[in-house]
Structures are given as structure tokens and as C-alpha cells.
Amino acid sequence: MCVRIYLSGLLGFLFMLTAEAGVGNSSAMPFCSETEQCLMFDLICESDEYEVRHYDSVKWVSTTERSIFMEMAAMKAFKRLYKYIDGGNEKGKKIEMTAPVLIKMVDKKFWQKSEYTMSFLLPAEDQENPPTPTDSNVKFVNKADFHSFKTFKTYLDLCSRISVFGFRSKKDFFVLQLDSINAKYSKGFHFGAGYNSPMTMFKRHNEVWFVAEGEPVCPDEWE
């Protein structure tokens, strides 16, 4: 059964305390435990299979790589973005790591090259005026507010080919679930959201996101 969730006064108060809309203290997110700040969201509804969330507009720092293999593109993109937050910017400023790390994946055939765009969430203090990257391949992106369909956690190690195959299987099954209830969502791409350091081996928390089109509807139950 799908349960409608309304934010309590306390949770609403916590959201009001965030320095910038959408970026807040990770203590409000049980699964966001490795960084001090995390991407906040409103939980609209949930079922046994998925959640519907609303995210406010926030600023990210992003880079894009082309490759046949996601893990190859992800490693290069991660190193480039990490260099930026480690001082590779015009101010030489070290920027706090946040969560999640997003990677946008375009649907493709296995043997085709594709673009993979990885993004780091900028912390609250850098949302308004972040230091300019020294690498021209690193850009700022303002993501508009959106609703998402999100599956529950699935293991993902971007450096592991076996893990990536498992992630794709989870994504494909989720597509079948969404289509079975005629959910309206943007086709042709999806996001992987990771909440752990590459060094974390166990109890990783990763998610698959699809961007909802229009006002998402929570079904009373799955067929």
C-alpha cells in the first residue's frame, strides 16, 4: 500500500534552518552519514517499491565524460571534480564534500559510447558564489526544482563492472514497475545517486532516480 506522508512541524523547521534551500545538515538524513551536508528533499509519498520526492533548486558543479563504459567515465569525472573541491579553483579554496554524488546516464546500447555527467552538490556556503573552476571542463549547473521517483538503495561501486551490471538490472526492473502503473517520467535518461566515499566497502547507500513529469501520483497499490 502507498502511504501518504506529510512533513511534521519539526521536519519542516529543520528544512527552514538550512542555509540555502535544498542543502542542509546531514543529521536529518539517516543514510547520509559520511558528509556534514546533504541534499534535502520533501517526501511526498512512499510504497514498498519506491518513494516520490520533491527537491528544491540547487547549484551543482558538474563535468561530462564520453565512454562505452560508465565506470571508466565515472573515474575520470570524479577525479576532475575532486580536484576542483580540493583547491583546483581560482581562489585555491578547499570545498567541503557533500552527498549525494549524481551521475546522469543516457539510455544506450551496450556497445555504444555515451555521455556521463557527474555532479557534486555545492555546500550551503558556496551555493551563492562558488569559486570559479580552473578546468574549463568543470561547469556550474543550476538544477531546477523537480519531483523524482526513487528506488530504494542498491549497491553501486562505480569502479566495478559487476556492480554496474547489477545497478543496471535494478534500473531496468524499476522502469517496468513505473510503466506498469503508467507513471509519467522523463524518458531516455536516469540518475544514479551515491552517498558514500569510493573507499566505503560495506553498507553503501545508492539510489536510482527518474524525474517525474507533471505532478506525480502515488498509486494506492501496485498491480
From TrEMBL:
GO terms for molecular function: heme binding. It comes from the Eukaryota. InterPro entries: Reg_factor_effector_dom_sf, SOUL_heme-bd. Pfam families: SOUL. Keywords: Signal. Residues 1-21 form the signal peptide. Belongs to the HEBP family. This is Heme-binding protein 2-like. It comes from Gouania willdenowi (Blunt-snouted clingfish).
